[in-house]
Design a protein that fits this description.
Chain lengths: 335, 289
């Protein structure tokens, strides 16, 4: 379906053993990212977005975590079959990550220049001098003013936006980045900085030619940066479509609900107030085999409780998982 | 903001030094330690006599007698010179013992705290067992096994002091291990070894430094105790504890032979304790304002 596939996740199941029982955090998840594509993984807190990201880089603490089944192919090789040593060579080199909390994701006792230089030194042979020069170049690339001086700053001396830029610079310090995973990169930043950081990410992605897995719960962020969107709910993927399809022709009731929660989203035009999805996320411990959204869904049928629907296609690149989907939007109704 | 140059970077340690300078007790401790350190380093230049040279004719001269500022002992050896050389020895003992226990304690503590699980359980139970023995008893037992000598006393003190460093470091490593930056560095392909010693250790070390400073004072005291019991330094070494032991029968006739080494021990230990308490106030984030 997707030519030139960068990352292909197939039927991934991840669970965590807790004292109360087994939590199935990710169930039967399949995703694909093409070279140079931006895929947004959307869903509310606790739906398994970050677990998926950590599974790709094999950063899930095991135990209590366990990747039960499935495969994660990166440029053709299954990451789940890699040894820890092979994974270390991939992390930070081919696949890099940006974390949610720029305030705490930098080591407080080293200068940011030293931390970026460290990535160069870890993955390629070069002198310390050279690594430092390249670190300063990266800081310039992510538009940190006065990069020579900032390279000598400690994380606590930088603002949140500045630190997130430094984090992005660190993620870019790999010799040949293929995939960048940004786990809620803008959640901790204020709105004006958010836009700047997103624009920077999009710009850098074009420049370096890497794929981007953008994890977020913010549909505004999705609209601005993504090529394609995968919507997750309670560990399951419920809809997967190109970004304009998601906004104009959502088929899964949950996707529609998410759009309704967004100010000025298309689904909300003309509506006097923001809508919200009633009820709350089900407990992953007690979740059965049915559709996890069944208890909150206003289109639920008896069959929804019985089993999780198989994939249904709505166009070449649009799939959804619903027994009773929303009606497709016609061209006239879209405009 | 942009017109001002970015101020020279204080960093954590420079900032701590700045705070330390405002803590009078800690500075007094540092001053005492500095005096002892200078005396120790320049002992051959500062000591008026050879500390082993016996002048029987001048034995048990009281302080301020001619040529002997602090008097002489029962064999006519110059007290001041012996105290200066004893200080040199005590500092070396303190530093070596604490280094031994730091090497052991940091290795065990970081492994236990970082990996957790059964490894942590095994290490911590062994440490619990060690802590169940009274400190001085454990030290004496180890010296008794190794044989009485100054070097063995240092090894014994090092081993007996190790549990506290392992515990303190384990606790701070466990807290630090969960920090986001550790995960972030792991995501950059950092190995476990590098994560432990380069990423986490510098962030987790502050409470251990406090313990180590206090530990130097305690090691000096313990080694004096062991030497007093005949398990540490052997005669005629000018060691403070040994000096007290070999002259205790003169406490009524020549008080200075017994008292002066005691005061020296007191001052040295006081210096390290004052500095250690000051460091604790500064490096412990809960006590920091």
């Amino acid at each position: 379906m997707i030519s030139n596939e960068l990352l292909k996740i197939d039927a991934l199941c991840v669970s965590f053993n807790t004292q109360r029982g087994k939590v199935r955090a990710v169930r039967n998840l399949s995703l694909g990212i093409a070279e140079g594509e931006t895929l947004a993984l959307v869903g509310e807190s606790g739906c398994g977005k970050s677990v998926t990201a950590h599974a790709i880089t094999r950063l899930i603490p095991m135990p209590p975590g366990l990747i039960e089944s499935g495969s994660i192919h990166f440029r053709g090789s299954n990451l789940l079959s890699f040894s820890e040593k092979q994974m270390r060579a991939i992390r930070g080199s081919r696949i890099s990550m940006i974390f949610q909390e720029p305030m705490t994701s930098l080591n407080p006792v080293f200068t940011i220049g030293a931390q970026i230089a460290e990535v160069f030194l870890a993955h390629s042979k070069m002198s310390k001098q050279n690594a430092h020069t390249k670190a300063v170049e990266l800081l310039k690339l992510v538009k940190i003013p006065d990069p020579e001086k900032r390279a000598k700053s400690y994380p606590h001396q930088l603002s949140g936006g500045m630190r997130q830029r430094a984090m992005i610079a660190m993620a870019l310090a790999s010799p040949n980045p293929g995939l960048m995973i940004a786990d809620e990169p803008t959640t901790a930043l204020d709105v004006t900085i958010q836009a700047q950081v997103l624009r920077l990410l999009a710009e850098l992605k074009e420049r370096v030619g890497m794929g981007l897995l953008l994890i977020t719960h913010d549909m505004g962020v999705v609209a601005e940066t993504a090529d394609r969107v995968a919507v997750m709910y309670a560990g399951r993927k419920v809809e997967d479509a190109p970004v304009e399809e998601i906004f104009t022709n959502p088929r899964h009731p949950y996707t529609l609900g998410l759009l309704g929660c967004q100010p000025s989203a298309p689904a909300n035009r003309g509506a006097p107030r923001l809508t919200s999805i009633g009820g709350s996320v089900p407990d992953l411990l007690t979740l059965g085999e049915g559709c996890p959204f069944e208890n909150r869904c206003n289109r639920a049928l008896p069959v929804c409780r019985e089993n999780f629907p198989s994939a249904a296609a709505a166009g070449s690149a649009h799939t959804y998982y619903c027994h009773n989907p929303e009606a497709p939007q016609t061209e006239e109704r879209r405009s | 903001m942009d017109t001002k140059p970015i101020p020279a970077d204080p960093g954590f340690w420079a900032d701590s030094w700045h705070q330390l300078k405002r803590n009078r007790a800690a500075m007094a401790g540092l001053l005492i330690i500095a005096c002892f350190a200078l005396l120790a380093i320049f002992a051959p230049l500062l000591a008026p006599h050879n500390p082993l040279e016996q002048v029987i004719a001048a034995r048990m001269s009281p302080p301020l007698s001619s040529g002997h500022l602090l008097g002489t002992d029962d064999l006519g050896r110059d007290m001041l010179s012996r105290l200066i050389y004893g200080g040199r020895l005590s500092l070396i003992i303190g530093i070596i013992s604490v280094s031994i226990s730091l090497i052991l304690g940091i290795s065990l503590g970081i492994v236990a705290g970082y990996f957790g699980g059964w490894l942590d359980k095994v290490i911590m139970r062994v440490i619990d067992i060690m802590l169940a023995f009274p400190y001085i008893l454990l030290t004496i037992v180890i010296v008794a096994i190794l044989g009485p000598s100054l070097m063995n006393a240092m090894v014994a003190i090092g081993i007996s002091q190790m549990p506290r460093y392992a515990r303190v470091l384990r606790a701070s490593v466990m807290a630090e291990r969960e920090q986001d930056y550790v995960m972030a560095e792991r995501a950059l392909g950092t190995s476990n070894f590098e994560l432990m010693f380069r990423t986490i250790l510098p962030n987790a070390l502050a409470p251990t430094i406090v313990q180590a400073t206090l530990g130097v004072g305690e090691a000096i005291l313990s080694s004096a105790g062991l030497s007093f019991l005949g398990l540490g330094a052997q005669p005629p070494t000018p060691e403070w504890g040994l000096m007290i032991a070999s002259s205790k029968q003169f406490i009524t006739s020549a008080w200075w032979i017994v008292t002066l080494p005691g005061i020296a021990i007191l001052l040295a230990v006081l210096g390290f304790n004052l500095l250690g308490d000051g460091l604790r106030d500064i490096l412990d984030p809960r006590l920091r304002d």
